[in-house]
Structures are given as structure tokens and as C-alpha cells.
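When time allows, look over one protein, given below as sequence and C-alpha cells. The question is which stretches look regular and which look disordered:
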Amino acid sequence: QIICNRVNHVQTCLEELEELAAKRRKELEDSRQLWTFFQEMEEAEAWIREKEKILAAKSCGRDLSSVVTLTNKHKTMLGELGNRRALLHQTMKKGEKILAKKSFSSVGIQEKMREVCLRWKKLEEVTGLHQQRLEDALNFFQFSAETDDLVAWLQDTYRIVSSDDFGHDDYSSQALLRKHRAVVDEVEKHRGAVASLRRQLALLAPGHRQGVDVQIRVVEVEQLYGEVVEVAVLRTQWLQDALAVYRMFSEVHACEVWL
């Protein structure tokens, strides 16, 4: 009987020990999950602070090339933002599970989740605003580059149509007239591009389209195009007159030869 009592006592103690060990294991696991949660939240906050500093220091570029470079970097950051969002979502789920167990005080956990959520929301807002500024800058510099290309083409064309070379005979005048008609066709094709400048300007962000320089630039392009068209019309008439004169000379020469 003594032996049986002793065995039962040891067995009871072993069961109690196992219960205490299981309870201790659960407490340690809960504690591990809690501190893992806080560590991941701290890492998320540190990442958010880093990106906030980057976004606060970022400019929108000085020309088309720099804006394209910044836009590509921002796209990379958006990819990182998406990955970090998924990690943060997982961490938030861990926090909700910890709260559901009610093993620890919910005040600190809820406060941390609220703080990180607010900072994350602000980061996404700042990221969206910066992306919009980059898009606005990209549209502006693309518009400026296209306008500069158009001005350069118009200036080259003006030099061509204002030439004082009308040929020296019937053949050369005809060749010049054919080339000139091809140039006139190109000028007419560019009429739509010039006419669309004001529509493109209206689509730019207010901070860009309301600038005095860009508005003056559009007016200058329109005036230059009008001058090119006007001079092109005059050159057409002058070439036709020169061709008529050289044909008359040719016919006179033919008559002289016949006589």
C-alpha cells in the first residue's frame, strides 16, 4: 500500500509538472509572439521613417532626363511599398491574434497598431502626391521637349522657304519648285501639331501651364508657324514666276534658233 501511495503521489506530481511545463511553454510562446510582433512593428516604423525622409528630400527633376530617372526610381519604391504592405498586413494579423488570446494587456498592442497604421496611411498619401508631381513634371518636360523640337523644325524650314535661290534655268526652277511643294506639304502636316499646343497646355498641371514663359513659348511657336506659311506662299509664287520667265526665255531661244 505504501508503494502504491508513493507511485500515485509521484504520478500526480509528474502530471502537475507536465501541466506547469505546458503552461510555461504556452506563456513563453505567447511572449515570443508578442515580442516578434513588436519587433516587426518597429522594423515597419523604421522603414516608414526612411521612406518619409527620401520623399521629403526628393525633387521632381530639372529636365526630361532627370524626371524619367526619378520616375523609374519611384516605380522601384512603389514595388517595395507593395511588398512592405503585404508584410505589414501579416504583422497586423499577428497582432489581432494576440489580442484575441487576451494573454497580455491590449492597450500597448492596440496603440502600436494604431500608430503604425496612421504613419503608413500618411506615407501612402505622400507617395501618391509625389507620384502625381512626377507625372505633372514629366508631362511638362515632354511638352517642352516637343515644343523645342517643333521650334527647331520651324526655324530650319523658315531658312529653307526664305531662300533666294530660284534656279538659273527651266530645269533647275522646276526641281526647286518640286522640292518646295514637298516642304509646303510638310508645313501643312505640322499645322495640327501647332494647333494642338494650346490643348496640350491646358492639360498640364496649373503650376506648369500658368507659367509666363511656357505661355509666351506657345505664342512664339504660333507666330513662327504663321511666318513660315506666309513666306512659303511667297516662295511658291516667286518660283512659279521664275519658272514662267525661264520657260519664256527657253521659248524665245528656241525661236531664235529656228530663225
